[in-house]
Amino acid sequence: MRLLRYVLRRLLFVVPVLLGSMFIAFLLTRVVPGNPIEKVAGPYASDARVEEMKREAGLLDPFYVQFVNYLRDLLHGDLGVSYQTSQPVSTDLVDRLPASLELVLYGMILAIGLALPLGVLAAVKRATIVDHVSRVLAVLGVSVPIFWIALVLLSAFYTRLGWLPGPEGRLPMRMVEPDRITGLYTIDALVQGQWDVFWAATKALILPVSTIAVVAMAPIARMTRAMMIDALESDYVRTARSMGLPSRVIVVRHAFRNAIIPVLTLIAAVFGYAIGGEVLVEYIFTWPGLGLYSYNAILGSDFPAIQGFIILATSIYILIYLVVDILTALLDPRVEF
Amino acid sequence: MAVNEELKRLAEAYAGDTISRRQLWKGAAGLGLSAAWIAALERGALAGPAPLRSQLAMRAQDEATTLIVAIAENVDTFDPGFTVGSKTAQTTIQNTFDQLTQYEIVEKQAPDGTPYRTVNTQSIVPMLAESWSQDGDRLNFQMRDGVTYSNGDPIDANTMVTAYRRIFETNAVSSFLLSMGGSVTDSTAFEAPDPKTFVIKMAKPNTLTAQNNTMHNTSAVNPNEIEAHKTEADPWALDYFKSNLGVGNGPYTLQSYKPDDSLVLVTNENYYGDKPFFSTVILKIVADATQRVQLLQKGDVDFATKIPIKELGTLSADANIKVLSIPSTLVTMLELNTTVPPFDKKEVRQAVAYATPYADIIEQVYEGQAQVAKSLVANGMPTSDFSTNQFDLNYDKAKELLAAAGYPGGQGLPEIKLTIRSDDVQWERTAILLQDSLKQIGMNVEIEKLAYAQFNELEQGSKLQMWTDEWISWVNDPYYHLSWLAVSTSPTNYPRFSDPRVDEIVSQFTLSEESVEKEAASKEAQALIIEHCAYIFLCQPNWITYTRADLDGYVYYNDELPRYNHFTRVQQ
């Protein structure tokens, strides 16, 4: 019951955060030069026709009127129509969300799955080869741009070795996608027993997921190592050691459980970063997800699409933080809710 | 043993693991098969009875008749009357709709001697129409018998009347084209005296309207579809056709479109013309040019579009890639806003023209794959005249002109921004050469890179000071070209060039038949435009296509849109 109240209280904060992000997105799209009408109208349209089209689209209204109208439509579930695809933005987002989720979720699972053991091992075996390797990987992941990692992986495993598919998107060009259940091709293909599709979708995921994982695991591994070192040097670990508890129990049950709490918060932040970094990954791998959609929307000044993407990304971000906060509250008895 | 039987034996032996991959390749190559066909054989074409192999065999045979093209962008709208920005939309419409007439295909030779196919824009031949003729101010089209849309709906002259009326009553882009010079004034210009005869009435006899009428923008959407999707507020079903490609009448139909992913075209079973070699065309949307190049090099696509010029060297050296570089009428230009200081002074514009490194741009930016450009009407267009253009690189003359304008050594010049689009590295390279060269005369220029939409808005509003751009006219007619770029009231005259004599010439001759006076007037207008230097002509880059070596049949059209029904795959 207390947990439910905590969740509800947290959800109340969602409204101002969403409103604020919407306002900033709305403001930025209007302040930066460029508007979608010039492109839609084309070069042959007269100035008068362009003005008329802007008026019809409401772009000549004062800023606050445009914003209020947008909020009103939003309350009716209407995110507007994309100028680039001529489809409702909500349809576009729903169509593309699974592609991005498949990428980010697997990327984060891989990153967490590698970073936590690596961080723990580096802390336990400080100043050994494991620690050095972990540090090098972490520095690389933090300092090397995500697009460069993507290009190097493509160049090595597609162009030179030919082991993995190139930037063809989620499936090879001639392959038919599985019927949509979740929209995640790997899951849908598995559920429907389409093994060839599952294998092809998995192969297509390996390089973009690895790119995201390399970048995402670096800060998590570093933070895990630092927190584990703190925990291993703490009084309660010293006490546990003096009581003769086995080393594995000390590391896993006592030190790691305490060290993981700040790492959880970092994982939420990295998840948000991965959603942002995904734009470049999707662009390079021709991945038809939200990243590529927002990239095209920004280039084309497609206001409704940009705003729709920001609302969705903010919502996902808020949801992740909410889940992390709940997990933290459950794991850390010091947190009151 | 016949070649086919030997191939089958090889395939079966490979499928049954009795020969190695190396033996398969050696044997098939010995029979004269290309790498692509051997790869297909390896994947199971002609193979034995194992279930997986037989499935793969089907796929391999499909591969031979499937054309995969890497393209760069999404569709903006599927409405033929309204698409202006997206080559993908235009190409899809062009391949799924025929027009009443088309240009005749002819053979030519590239400067390096390579033969290629293109069109003769002076010769218009029938397409959907069985025949056509111009009778004074009337264009008459005799419709083919039995021609239908891909769903079987018949097409006759009344179909065309409805479709052309829609173009005019919705103010579609095509209406601007057909009404150019006041030729076709409104929707009453279209008539069907009988179901076989379609007539376009023009304000006066001219040669331009028949050319404008060959373009994809005049594709006729199906009246039954309009009827099915119209509403009271939208009697021409604009909303529907915006995001849905109409049932076409061309060699292909659209099977699927997934934005940011692909479009799939399949042959139209009801097409009246020859069946295309490729039964399926996959247009794979690959936003990043580097990845399009990689896919082509690896053989995962047959044809890649919008390849930056910097890739020319690498791709030319690849034996598996066919590079065709042919002269085009595209002109790249430095445009100077005549309403903004310091370019409101003709002498300053002329100084820039004398300080432009033309040869360096051709060699360093376009790697020699461009022609010299000396007039707004490009070389290759009728009446093109370079003879009055004296603006070669000459810093002394440039400095003199700058001093005459009140800016000796560049002193007193306001801040100057050279704005470029960030979507292609060629613009940046050109801008850097211009910046360096203009510095020689004391003109310091700051380069500003903008995304496409931002650039578009500022350019179309004539809010830029100095910028680079390019133009190719879909219709190979000098007056079509001048109407868009040189008439003072044209919405695409972004530098706001204005000369009453040029306006007068274009107004007098746009709608007229060919004559000596018309040719002389075009040359007079070109000389005036050259002298004003609102447009400085950098070069005419070649049109370069990059395909796999086994792809043949490409035809270059002025609108730059590939027609996939011309392509074939050949054995190497």
Kindly describe this structure.
The complex is a heterodimer of chains A (337) and B (572). Chain A has 337 residues and is mainly α. Chain A is built from 13 helices and no strands. In chain A, α1 runs antiparallel to α13. Chain A is globular, with a radius of gyration of 24 Å. By secondary structure, chain B is α+β, with helices and mostly antiparallel strands. Chain B has four domains: 48 residues; 146 residues, D-Maltodextrin-Binding Protein, domain 2; 106 residues, Dipeptide-binding Protein, Domain 1 (Dipeptide-binding Protein, domain 1, Alpha-Beta Complex); 211 residues, Dipeptide-binding Protein, Domain 3 (Dipeptide-binding Protein, domain 3). In chain B, β15, α16 and β16 form a beta-alpha-beta unit. In chain B, α1 runs antiparallel to α2. About 2% of the residues of chain B have low confidence.
CATH domain topology of the largest domain in chain B: Dipeptide-binding Protein, domain 3
Name the shape of chain A in a single word. Answer: globular
Query: Distance between termini of chain A?
Result: 10 Å
Strand content of chain A: under 5%
How many domain regions of chain B?
A: 4
Largest sheet of chain B: 7 strands, mixed
Q: Mean of the pLDDT scores of chain B?
A: 89
Strand percentage of chain B lies at 15-25%
Main sheet characteristics of chain A? none
Number of helices of chain A: 13
Question: Could you provide a short overview of the structure?
Answer:
The complex is a heterodimer of chains A (337) and B (572). Chain A has helices at residues 2-31, 36-41, 47-56, 63-75, 89-124, 129-143, 146-160, 185-191, 195-232, 235-242, 247-285, 290-299, 303-331.
Structure keywords:
heterodimer; A: 337 residues; mainly alpha; 13 helices; 0% strand; globular; B: 572 residues; alpha+beta; D-Maltodextrin-Binding Protein, domain 2; Dipeptide-binding Protein, domain 1; 4 domains; seven-stranded mixed beta sheet; six-stranded mixed beta sheet; 20 helices; 22 strands; 34% helix
